[in-house]
Amino acid sequence: MKYTSLRFLRVLYPIFKIVLSLILILFFVTSLLWHIWILSLCCFLLITILWIKPPRAIFVLLLLLFASTPYSFNKISSRMDYLGEIIRETGSTALNTKEKVGIYLGNISMGIVGFAIFAPEVSIETLLLMDPRGKDRVFDSSFAMKSPHIRGLIDDYTSKVKAGKAPLTSKRIPLIWPGKNTYSMLDYRVALAVAGGGLFLNYKPADEGYDIDCRITIDVKYSENYQLEIINSDYVRLYIDEAIFSAMQDIGWFHPYYAHYYWSMSAI
Fold it and tell me: Residue 84: which H helix or E strand, with range?
């Protein structure tokens, strides 16, 4: 058994190394196009270390990568400022090919980062924007129930149904998270994927209580007027200006669509 496990790991490691190298190459090229020189250097060195294997260098490099994070965040925000200004003043057609490719790769990078922060739903939504078919997507998933905010909305409506104060089929319930930003760090996985969408509930009387068919529908697209502020301090700034990504929709590089999440539950 132990021999089999070691053999499996030996087979798996080269595949892992290739996949990680491809991700690092993507980040390297994206960093160059976004003028984040330290991050691009770190990605290049990580790729080299991954294949040459100097044992101590990787720790020094990871320390450098961590230390340069504020610089990288500020460079990303500065690039957002620059590209956002171009788009708002002269429109999406003013972007040159290099800038379009940089934004396109930036979208892929954001999708990969979403997996890294354990938010796979928003990652999939982000990456599917590159599908030229732009067709609606249907997911059988109850992941939204991980959100206290979603559960609270359902509990509130259920109480009204039980009291006879609401119909068995709800109208659209807007999904807006309270606070300074739309997104809440307490349930960021759900908020990142469905904030701005709508919750729909359909109640069916059962022997005990109700069976509830739940659906969330979200219009997956970038909005020209929306900015997501992530960090804003005296020395570090990081935000996402959706205007630069909405420009890619205008020129046909990204393709908006509707995502529908379905699940069922019971209420006694």
Answer: helix 69-90
